[in-house]
């Protein structure tokens, strides 16, 4: 039987089940049997046609964990371990060229001008087809960075490592928090939950999270948040008063935007102390603009507003280590598990915010 995948053929229309021939492997390529595929908020944006990177038709899914089915030649992980058939692996979702200005001179592969991503900007219209994780199998290119993962770990728990986990790892890598910092997080979705866990790991003395879902805020507390604010129950003025009370009237040393909403940016910058840092990690697609007072909001406060665009292999490694050290906690992040052919239902669950994390299991 040929492997099947769920394919996005038209924006705003249901994904369609299609079969594809199993590809012949070129040297260094790895064919993987998918064990778990994460459904990301970015997938919803692509399904709705909001991400300008999305070609049609496409097999969605950039968060995958699977078992090696075939290898052409020798292949090793980023840690130098030999990869063999049957190994359980996770891979960096993006592939950078290694030779452009950003890769070779600035050493920032996340900004690579030739970077491509499984399930985001590679069409399945031409062979080898299987380049997304909403599928029974995915073909990894020879230049994909791979990690072995323990057999004892539930693959579904691992899937957010390569996206929300790695993106937030990138944010913290850029910000370089100091022990004792007071960190504010906007949004208790997977990005915000990873931000909470990283803030705790970096030794933050206060971790304040703002969100609109009580259950997610309670989860964030279990991950290390010291104070949770429900934005649906309090006005912006009341929220600011609470943040100032817990930061000695100064504001947060670092604030992490993990919502992708312009309104959050205006509020978040106002809650950062003078000389602090504001990290924008939630904007994976165009989602509006915000108006700031250049003097009052930025210059006079002497703040650093830092964009966070995707991640690279270093950050996937950071997120994987964090998750493996907190397995029981991160297992809570997976709220729904569905078979692969229920991918449309999975997208609807994520769009409605009824799910924290949906995982497809072929």
Automatic annotation (TrEMBL):
InterPro entries: ADH-like_C (IPR013149), ADH-like_N (IPR013154), ER (IPR020843), GroES-like_sf (IPR011032), NAD(P)-bd_dom_sf (IPR036291), Zn_alcohol_dh (IPR050129). CDD domains: MDR_TM0436_like (cd08231). One of its GO terms (molecular function) is oxidoreductase activity. The keyword Oxidoreductase applies. Residues 10-360 form the Enoyl reductase (ER) domain. Keywords: Oxidoreductase. Gene3D superfamilies: Medium-chain alcohol dehydrogenases, catalytic domain (3.90.180.10), NAD(P)-binding Rossmann-like Domain (3.40.50.720). It holds the Pfam family ADH_zinc_N. The keyword Oxidoreductase applies. It comes from the Bacteria. This is Alcohol dehydrogenase. It comes from Biomaibacter acetigenes. The lineage of its organism: Bacteria, Bacillati, Bacillota, Clostridia, Thermosediminibacterales.
């Amino acid at each position: 039987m040929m492997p099947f995948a769920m394919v996005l053929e038209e924006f705003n229309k249901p994904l369609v089940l299609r079969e594809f021939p199993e590809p012949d492997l070129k040297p260094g390529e790895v064919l993987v049997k998918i064990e778990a595929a994460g459904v990301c908020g970015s997938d919803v944006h692509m399904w709705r046609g909001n991400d300008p990177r999305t070609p049609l038709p496409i097999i969605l899914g950039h968060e995958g964990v699977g078992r090696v089915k075939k290898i052409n030649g020798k292949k090793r992980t980023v840690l130098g371990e030999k990869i063999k058939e049957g190994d359980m692996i996770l891979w960096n979702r993006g592939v950078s060229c290694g030779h452009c200005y950003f890769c070779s001179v600035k050493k920032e592969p996340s900004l690579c001008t030739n970077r491509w991503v499984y399930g985001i900007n590679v069409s399945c219209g031409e062979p080898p087809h299987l380049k997304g994780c909403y599928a029974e199998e995915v073909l990894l290119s020879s230049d994909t960075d791979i990690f072995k993962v323990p057999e004892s770990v539930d693959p579904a728990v691992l899937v957010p490592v390569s996206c929300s986990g790695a993106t937030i790892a990138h944010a913290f890598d850029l910000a370089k928090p100091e022990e004792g910092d007071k960190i504010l997080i906007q949004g208790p979705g997977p990005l915000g939950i990873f931000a909470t866990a990283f803030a705790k790991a970096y030794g933050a003395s206060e971790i304040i999270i703002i969100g609109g879902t009580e259950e997610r805020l309670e989860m964030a507390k279990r991950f290390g948040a010291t104070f949770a604010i429900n934005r649906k129950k309090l006005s912006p003025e009341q929220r600011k008063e609470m943040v100032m009370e817990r930061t000695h009237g100064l504001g947060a040393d670092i604030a992490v935007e993990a919502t992708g909403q312009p309104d959050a940016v205006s509020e978040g910058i106002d809650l950062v102390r003078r000389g602090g840092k504001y990290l924008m990690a939630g904007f994976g697609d165009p989602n509006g603009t915000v108006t700031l007072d250049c003097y009052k909001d930025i210059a006079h406060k002497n703040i650093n507003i830092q964009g966070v665009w995707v991640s690279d292999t270093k950050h996937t490694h950071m997120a994987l280590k964090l998750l493996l050290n907190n397995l029981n906690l991160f297992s809570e992040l997976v709220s729904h598990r569905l078979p692969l052919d229920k991918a449309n239902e999975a997208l609807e669950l994520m769009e409605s915010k009824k799910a924290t994390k949906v995982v497809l299991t072929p």
